[in-house]
Amino acid sequence: MRKNLVRLLTSITLLAGCANEVPEKPAVPETAEECAKRNGDWIQASQGVVVDFGPFRCLNYETTDSGKSCESDNECQGGCVPVYNWEKKVVGGECYSRVSDYCFQEHYNHGGVSTCVY
């Protein structure tokens, strides 16, 4: 009995440690070539708004954890977005497929949904 209790507590401790892991954010592509390899947009932009001045930067590039189940943005490289069922009810969250400064997607956070607003 005591051995089983120790095993259970050890397992819970290990699982709790894993739940707090924050994924490493992918490096931001710094050249047009690197951006193209990640299927990003090499544009002049400021906070996701395309402008015709300033330096070029890579926006909207691919992540490696797309589709992974999540509860909040800090669990994903590109943000956690809501998943809806056929009744249009939120049933969870999943990691977004891109890292983006564009403000167009909804964000899922522990059961709630919010819209990005600048």
Task: Give an overview in words.
This protein has 118 residues and is α+β, with helices and mostly antiparallel strands. It has one domain (26-115). The chain is built from two helices and ten strands, in the order ααββββββββββ. The strands form four sheets. It has a three-stranded antiparallel beta sheet with strand order 2-1-3. The protein has a three-stranded antiparallel beta sheet with strand order 5-7-6, with no helix packed on it. Strands 4-8 form a two-stranded antiparallel sheet. The longest helix has 18 residues, at 2-19. It is elongated.
Tell me the number of helical segments per DSSP (H or I, 4 or more residues long). Answer: 2
- Please give the order of strands in the largest beta sheet: 2-1-3
The Rg value, from CA coordinates, equals 19 Å
Oligomer: single chain
Cα-to-Cα separation, first versus last residue: 56 Å
Number of strands: 10
Overall shape = elongated
Q: How does the helix and strand content classify structurally? A: alpha+beta
Helix content class: 10-25%
Overall pLDDT confidence: 76
Key features of this structure:
118 residues, alpha+beta, three-stranded antiparallel sheet, 20% helix
What's the topology here?
Layout: H1 2-19, H2 32-37, E1 41-46, E2 49-50, E3 56-59, E4 61-62, E5 69-70, E6 80-84, E7 90-95, E8 98-99, E9 106-109, E10 112-115
Antiparallel strand pairs: 1-2, 1-3, 4-8, 5-7, 6-7, 9-10
Summary?
The protein is α+β, with helices and mostly antiparallel strands. It is built from 2 helices and 10 strands.
